[in-house]
Amino acid sequence: MTIERLAPLVALALIDSTSFGTLLIPLWLMLVPGRPRSGRIVLFLGTVAAF
Q1: Residue 8 is assigned to a structural domain of this protein
Q2: Under 8 Å between Cβ of 29 and 41
Q3: CA separation (Å) from 3 to 6, 7, 11, 17?
Q4: According to the model, what pLDDT value does residue 5 have?
Q5: How far is the CA of 9 from the CAs of 13, 22, 50, in angstroms?
Q6: What is the pLDDT of residue 12?
Q7: Which domain, by its residues, includes 22?
Q8: Residue 18: DSSP 8-state
Q9: Of 51, 40, 50, 42, nearest to 31 (Cα)?
Q10: Total domains present in the chain
């Protein structure tokens, strides 16, 4: 793989890793008062795995 093909992939990976779903939803799931609801976490992980 050449640098011309690798650079856009790295840029897209960085953009994807800073998305709303990657950063804020897991934080929200962890910071909600009380015990973490396993149903919400399973739903989030299932959605990520499906897409």
Answers
A1: no
A2: yes
A3: 5, 6, 12, 21
A4: 87
A5: 6, 18, 21
A6: 85
A7: 16-50
A8: T
A9: 40
A10: 1
Residue type, 16: D
Tell me whether residue 4 is in a domain: no
Q: Is the pLDDT of residue 41 over 80?
A: yes
Strand segments, DSSP code E, in the chain are none
Q: What angle do CA 13, 18, 20 make, to 5 degrees?
A: 125
Backbone angles phi, psi at 40, to 5 degrees: -65, -40
Q: How does pLDDT run across 10-40, given as a tens digit for each residue? A: 888 888 777 777 778 888 888 888 887 888 8
Residue 38 in 3-state DSSP? helix
The reply to whether 37 falls in a domain is: yes
